[in-house]
Amino acid sequence: MQGFVRAAVVCCGLLAATHLLSYAQTPDPNSSATSAESPAPVQPPAPIMNTDQGRVGAGVKVSLYGIGGEVAVRVTHHTNVRAGFNAISYSRNFDKDGISYAGQLNFKTFEAHYDYFPWAKSFHISPGVLVYAADPITATASAPAGSHFTLGGVDYYSSAADPITGTGKIKFNQAAPTVTVGWGNLVSRKEGKHFTVPFEVGVAFQGSPKASLSLAGTACDSTGTFCQNAATDPTIQSNIVSEQTKVNNSMSFFKVYPIISIGFGYKF
After folding, report:
1. Are 41 and 83 in contact (CB under 8 A)?
2. Residue 39 confidence (pLDDT)
3. How far is CA 182 from the centre of its chain?
4. How far is CA 233 from the centre of its chain?
5. Contact between residue 185 and residue 200 where contact means Cβ atoms under 8 Å apart
6. In angstroms, rounded to a whole number, what is the distance separating the alpha carbons of residues 152 and 132?
7. Nearest alpha-carbon partner for 96 in 17, 213, 12, 266
8. What is the rounded CA–CA span in Å between residue 31 and residue 36?
9. pTM of this structure
């Protein structure tokens, strides 16, 4: 009987050991599934959209200074430098105090601006400078033989033998500071935007006008007996200065000249 019990215990022990060994060798379904999976691919970072491409823009425009063109270069994300030119020519004949003038308006200007875009969009504030490349207003003067004219409020008559002729001009400061505000950016900060329609308003501080009048020929009194050379007689020259002062006073509002322009531009 004791041998039978001993044999039963040994058998139970062998069965338990066999069961534990088989359990240890059985693979874990969860761990095998995990090891069989390949690692997830690494996704590349999303590309960053560049909204600041393009460094140069060019355009054409029409303004109170005529027809012109300009080029802008990006300096920073908020600033450009811009330079351009303008030209306009206009002729008109008129009479003043008995003297006939063939006038010529001839604006030829160069300009430079520093454009500041507070929000890096289209609105900008632009200090700058305007330079006149020629005398803006010129005229030729004449008084037909025997005609009446006045200089500085004094009456004269143009000599029949040597009638009065001359030239005149009106100048402003050659370089004038400017300040403008506008909408439109020749070098747009927006990706893919190449075309723009810039609009700008402002003023040029060109200073008070400076008129000059040079006369030649002979000026006589009403009887025609007392005549003087208009180019050399001190009294006539003094009266010419008075005439120049009258012209300057009548044009004093031109010391601040308005700037209004609109154009079409392209960013490269």
Report:
1. no
2. 58
3. 8
4. 49
5. no
6. 30
7. 213
8. 9
9. 0.73
**Which of helix, strand or coil describes residue 78?**
coil
Instruction: Give the residue, 27 or 224, on which the prediction is more confident.
Output: 224
What type of residue sits at position 238? S
Distance separating alpha carbons of residues 178 and 175, to the nearest angstrom: 10
Tokens of 224: 């025609």
What gap in Å lies between CA 189 and CA 267, rounded to an integer? Answer: 10
In the block, residue with structure tokens 């590309």: 47
Q: Is it the case that residue 6 has pLDDT exceeding 90?
A: no
3-state secondary structure of 237: helix
Residue 53: alpha-carbon gap to chain centroid: 20
Instruction: Provide the residue type at 246 as one letter.
Output: K
CATH of 56-267, one of 2.30.29, 2.40.160, 2.60.40, 2.40.50: 2.40.160
Return the structure tokens found at 93: 């004949």
For 194, other C-beta atoms within 10 Å of its C-beta total 12
Distance CA 199, CA 266 (A): 14
Q: H or E stretch including 33?
A: helix 29-36
Provide the pLDDT confidence category of residue 52 given band limits of 50, 70 and 90: low
**b/e code 56-92 from CB counts within 10 Å (16+ = b):** ebebebebebbebebbbebeeeeebebebbbebeeee
* Secondary structure class of 239 (helix, strand, coil): helix
pLDDT digits (tens, 9 = 90+) for 184-233: 999 998 888 999 999 999 999 999 999 999 999 999 998 888 999 999 99
